[in-house]
Amino acid sequence: MHAVALLVAGFGALGGSAAQAQGSGVGDKDYVWNEMRGEKLQALMAKGDAARGEIAFEVCAGCHKSGAVGRPDGTYPRLAGQHASVLIKQMVDIRAGRRKNPKMLPFASQHVLSPQDIADIAVYLEGLPVPAENGRGPGTALEAGRKLYVEDCQSCHGAAGEGDGARFYPRLSGQHYAYLLREGLAIREGERGNANPKMMKIIRPYSDADLKAALDYASRLSVDGR
Q: How is the chain split into domains, by residue range?
């Protein structure tokens, strides 16, 4: 939880009401990527408890599977080893309506999870081991994918795909290719409501082949780079 500790130190003095703007996402004039207030800030400032998080996550394992390894077909992402800050952001964004996920929303709503629960689940998932086996792409354009990744993705997601929790950039190494591609397409097309406008701008010119190549390469980065 080192990244979250840094975030708490940086944002602890900020104010903000408990309720964030509902449904404000990409395309809305008042959209601010990763605005620091409300439940997100509360969850980031809470001290997560992995033991409680493991219990709270039991209901999630039906989709994300035991150990939060996700599904290679991309229907559910691998959550094991993801930065707690990233997980907190995504859970809060889903319940606030910035990121549309009708299947997950009933499990992440305010009636089910408190900000403390979110912090507990996030710290539990961050500490899980990441298996080296994950769903990967065809492997037919890896050199082209490597060049695109180094040029456009590495500065945020890291040379080893390790991400950056302090900046809310997700870990990509160990993630299933089909999930990366699904979300990459949604971000490029402006269909993921909580997308980072910086990333949208970078990948907007990408062809489908470019996106597939870059994300196939990313899915093959070693999980040892965590």
A: 2-126, 142-225
- Per CATH, the number for 2-126 is 1.10.760.10
pLDDT in tens, 56-82: 999 999 999 999 999 999 999 999 999
Q: Rounded CA gap, 170 and 168, in Å? A: 6
CATH class of 142-225: mainly alpha
State percent of the chain over pLDDT 70.
Answer: 89
- Give the mean model confidence (pLDDT) for residues 211-224: 96
Is residue 88 within a helix (H) or strand (E), and if so which, with residue range?
Answer: helix 84-96
Question: Rounded to an integer, what distance in angstroms lies between the CA atom of residue 17 and that of residue 115?
Answer: 13
Farthest CA pair distance, the chain: 50
**pLDDT tens for each residue of 106-125:** 888 888 899 999 999 999 99
Residue 64, C-beta contacts closer than 8 angstroms, at least 6 positions apart: 70, 76, 77, 78, 79
Match 């989709």 to its residue by tokens: 63
CA angle centred on 75, ends 42 and 57, rounded to 5°: 40
Beta-bridge partners for 169: 164
Domains 2-126 and 142-225 share a fold: yes
CB 97 within 8 A of CB 22: yes
8 A C-beta contact, residue 130 and residue 80: yes
CB count, 10 Å around CB of 76?
A: 20
CA distances 83 to 24, 42, 58, 122, 149, Å, are 24, 17, 19, 8, 20
